Amino acid sequence: MSNKQARPVESERIPLTARDVSFSWQDTPLHWVPGDPFTTHTINVLHLLLPAGERWFVHVYKQVLPLIRDDRLREDVIGFIGQEAMHSQAHDEVLPHLREQGLDPTPYTAQVDWFFEKLLGDRTLPPGRARRWWLLERVALIAAIEHYTAFLGDWVLNAGELDRRGADPTMLDLLRWHGAEEVEHRSVAFDLFQHLDGGYRRRARTWAAAFGALVFLWQRGARFFMENDPTLVDGRASFGEFYRSGRRGTLPTAGAMLRSVPRYLSRSYHPSQEGSTAQAVAYLAVSPAASAARKGGS
To answer: Which pTM does this prediction carry?
Structure first.
């Protein structure tokens, strides 16, 4: 690996704005990818993980704001906080719709809440070195997680197979609005980590923790949905089905996910080199929810 730190691509940085979007779920079917409950529920795990996870991001970053010594980065972090708070709210509003269709996610979301609020929450530590260490660990964890949210955002913006299979347009708009904003702000978490610490060993260690936790929670969530779907007799989630869905284009491929690992662990990594801000902005210009938010705010 090179020891040279990559430079941000300045053309990929834009001011960040929280868009006050809303979605109506009354016409969205349980299997919003027609005839494909596995893809539906694998993506549905986002609605279980993101509300608690993004509330945790916001909580940690509010603690970090006084430590930021760069005005432009502080502005980016404030924009990031606004967008993440909106993401949490939008995904949270899907959960009542799932309950109405016979899928109560509470047993799983209670575990996710414990993970973020207790395991990764604030700890009673003495002021000084120990407290700062735990804060920097969480900042580094968020940078690693954001690598994958940006990866997923870029994927869903380009997942034309979901359109070809007739996926519900409202759900697609939620996913692509969120994905576009993840691409928009993909550099903020990493830049903040670099600003406050930037240690390579911490980056690698927290990547391993974040990746392992995401894989564990995601497969557990997919299994929960498939096993509790009231329309399925023997619903199961398996890696084989994930692999086949990736080959079909309805989910990210296992290969693409694995290839993202050495990129993040490279010493020359910078998130601005991945994805396209222009593509994200172009989608946000036509997104029904983002367009309605603009009109409502004008």
So the answer is: 0.94
